[in-house]
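Q: For a teaching session next week I want to show students how multiple molecules come together into a single three-dimensional assembly. I've collected the sequence lines for a complex. Could you give me the predicted structure tokens for the whole thing so I can convert them for display?
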Amino acid sequence: EAQVTQNPRYLITVTGKKLTVTCSQNMNHEYMSWYRQDPGLGLRQIYYSMNVEVTDKGDVPEGYKVSRKEKRNFPLILESPSPNQTSLYFCASSLWAGRSVNTEAFFGQGTRLTVV
Amino acid sequence: SQKIEQNSEALNIQEGKTATLTCNYTNYSPAYLQWYRQDPGRGPVFLLLIRENEKEKRKERLKVTFDTTLKQSLFHITASQPADSATYLCALDDQAGTALIFGKGTTLSVSS
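A: Of course. Below is the structure for the complete assembly, covering every listed component.
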């Protein structure tokens, strides 16, 4: 079954304690990205990756890091989480069609993060 | 920068009626537009993609139109059912072709 798997689904942590949210896809997609979703603000892209070892900032990258060492995995790292990073996070993957991401995006189940 | 607006935050209709959701965009001419469904606490699920040279696309009870002159897409659900209750998101490719930009969504409630 084609899927994007995120872990953990729920996480409560304290300010400043480094954490990693994992994301894995089994569709051999080149393109992967991370979004955060907040009430009234919708989905906003944090980082994206067009292929292994190629990553770039989205609209809201401050306070986050990513890496893409393997095609299937795209972890999101919060080096020093703060309360304003409390949010619902989604990983997504899709085929990369030349210059444009013009195919459907597959999303993970989401990670609800609370930073206290 | 490009801007996407889904005009209604919420839409309430009765079972059996047609739901029509609107997505408007500015400052850009996208190559395509996508529609997703999102249930509470879950990831968006792809529904339909329509390209700039297509005026209309259908899938079962769903129909999407794309008017590049008006810079608008309409998303229709015919014979709506309570199970269609969800938030519907429209999305466009950004100008650089490196990301999907999402609207904030319209929450549809279908009552029986």
